[in-house]
């Protein structure tokens, strides 16, 4: 079978910030089905230099991976593929939660839920046989005789080392050198799947499961060597939901990087409590090239933290930030504004707290009820009835009727948070200017970002 896998172009704030990474999820699926003997092409629309039309007639199957904000764009691609006679399959962190809505458009034939490598491979095999026997494939949705069919969920893959490395050879890695990390070319790498922390605003623990499934240290180091030696990237983003969950494993990875003399700079996502309890791990991370850590602070308000099910407290955050600074790590802190019980007063308290923490980067977002999250279940009846709501689910817009805050007020508070934080000192202004230059962000990008703050 001839298969086209598409990554729709980013939209909104993600596009404005200029961050550009290869689509790891699609590359894992591409590697898996290529191993099965199929001809695979990966088209990443975020890096296409020209808007030339895709010749869908060349392909038997078109797979589209999408998140919530790119829902509309994904459906437009599906419409074109379907009109060309392709079988259209959609997956990613959004379609499985709105499968009936998508399938009802008749532009998509199958939805793949969750982890996609085995499911998509079995679906391709069934399509190749052309016998219509899809009910036995776990983890898919489709229409049969006018009725929606959801097959039983597929168990999560236990042995991640059984996966081939992402098929980076199917894309042009040089296209992704736009995003820099301290002046170095950076690319993502995944070392585990699953997250035991069930934050109310995040669907990851549902999508990947609550059990942490880890790749071996040997497999991780092998991929790091490929990235470093074959593709010549000397910075890495570990994109696991919680890279630091098992400190002993992190230390082993660090020792491997040092022993193999890989001159890598890297960052990872972590929780403040895990960092705070394991300073020795943090020291080893720094020795192995760690330069920055992303932490979810979310709020100064204890009721909001409880509502979001973060499982952390403000004092732990303060101590962790102090410890990270002491060890020379840059800190990227994220904040969620507009919790269900929040007011303008509590949001101003969080902004003030962010200024006191004084991290290198503060990322402010509006609480967004993504399908698959606990928050979505709480507010789904209050989501604004826009004609096309999904593009607004970009964490920069209030998308549901809030008890205390209007749409316009929330937009203003988000803009105010950025303005107050990044003008808090002369050094802060210089930091953001350095960030703009480092990531090659031009005036058009800045204007796009500001436009998004106003909901343009």
Description:
The two termini are 43 Å apart. The protein has 17 helices and 16 strands. The model is unreliable at 438-456 (pLDDT under 50). Helix 2 packs across helix 5 (117-129), helix 7 (217-230) runs parallel beside helix 8 (247-259) and helix 13 packs parallel to helix 15. 38% of the residues lie in helices and 17% in strands. Helix 13 links the parallel strand 15 and strand 16 (361-366). The strands form three sheets. The chain has a seven-stranded mixed sheet, sandwiched between helices. A seven-stranded mixed sheet has the order 8-9-12-13-14-15-16. It has a two-stranded antiparallel ribbon with strand order 10-11. It is an alpha/beta fold. The relative contact order is 0.10. It has two domains: 2-150, Cobalamin-binding domain (Rossmann fold); 179-453, Aldolase class I (TIM Barrel, Alpha-Beta Barrel), CATH 3.20.20.70.
In brief:
With 456 residues, the chain is of the alpha/beta class. The chain has 17 helices and 16 strands.
Major sheet details:
7 strands, mixed
CATH-assigned homologous superfamily of the largest domain:
Aldolase class I
CATH class of the largest domain: Alpha Beta
Q: What is the number of E strands?
A: 16
Q: Reading side by side through the largest sheet, how are the strands ordered?
A: 2-1-3-4-5-6-7
How far apart are the termini?
43 Å
């Amino acid at each position: 079978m001839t298969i086209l896998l598409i990554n729709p172009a980013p939209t909104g704030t993600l596009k404005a910030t200029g961050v550009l990474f290869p689509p790891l999820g699609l590359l894992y699926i591409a590697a898996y089905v290529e191993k099965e003997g199929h001809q695979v092409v990966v088209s990443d629309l975020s890096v296409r230099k020209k808007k030339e039309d895709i010749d869908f007639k060349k392909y038997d199957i078109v797979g589209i991976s999408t998140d919530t904000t790119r829902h509309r764009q994904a459906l437009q691609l599906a419409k074109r593929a379907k009109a060309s006679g392709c079988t259209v399959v959609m997956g990613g962190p959004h379609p499985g939660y709105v499968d009936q809505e998508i399938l009802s458009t008749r532009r998509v034939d199958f939805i793949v839920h969750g982890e996609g490598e085995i499911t998509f491979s079995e679906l391709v095999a069934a399509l190749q046989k052309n016998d219509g026997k899809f009910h036995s494939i776990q983890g898919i949705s489709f229409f049969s005789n006018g009725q929606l069919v959801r097959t039983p969920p597929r168990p999560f893959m236990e042995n991640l080392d059984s996966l081939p490395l992402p098929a980076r050879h199917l894309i042009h890695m040089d296209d992704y050198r736009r995003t820099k990390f301290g002046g170095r070319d950076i690319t993502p790498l995944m070392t585990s799947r699953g997250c035991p922390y069930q934050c109310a605003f995040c669907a990851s623990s549902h999508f990947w499961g609550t059990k942490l499934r880890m790749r071996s240290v040997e497999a991780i180091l092998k991929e790091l060597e490929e990235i470093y030696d074959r593709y010549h990237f000397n910075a890495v983003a570990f994109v696991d939901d919680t890279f630091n969950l098992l400190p002993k494993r992190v230390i082993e990875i660090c020792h491997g990087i040092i022993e193999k003399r890989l001159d890598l700079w890297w960052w990872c996502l972590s929780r403040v409590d895990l960092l705070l309890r394991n300073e020795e791990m943090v020291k080893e991370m720094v020795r192995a090239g760690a330069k920055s850590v992303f932490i979810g602070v979310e709020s100064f308000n204890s009721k909001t933290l409880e509502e979001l099910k973060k499982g952390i407290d403000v004092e732990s955050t303060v101590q962790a930030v102090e410890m990270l600074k002491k060890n020379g790590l840059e800190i990227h802190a994220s904040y969620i504004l507009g919790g269900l019980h929040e007011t303008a007063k509590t949001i101003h308290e969080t902004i003030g707290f962010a200024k006191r923490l004084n991290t290198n980067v503060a990322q402010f977002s509006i609480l967004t009820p993504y399908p698959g999250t606990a928050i979505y279940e709480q507010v789904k009846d209050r989501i604004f009835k826009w004609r096309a709501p999904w593009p607004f689910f970009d964490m920069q817009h209030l998308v549901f009727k809030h008890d205390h805050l209007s749409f316009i007020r929330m937009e203003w508070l988000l803009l105010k948070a950025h303005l107050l934080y990044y003008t808090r000192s002369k050094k802060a202004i210089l930091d953001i200017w350095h960030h703009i230059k480092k990531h090659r962000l031009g005036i058009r990008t800045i204007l796009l970002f500001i436009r998004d703050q106003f909901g343009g």
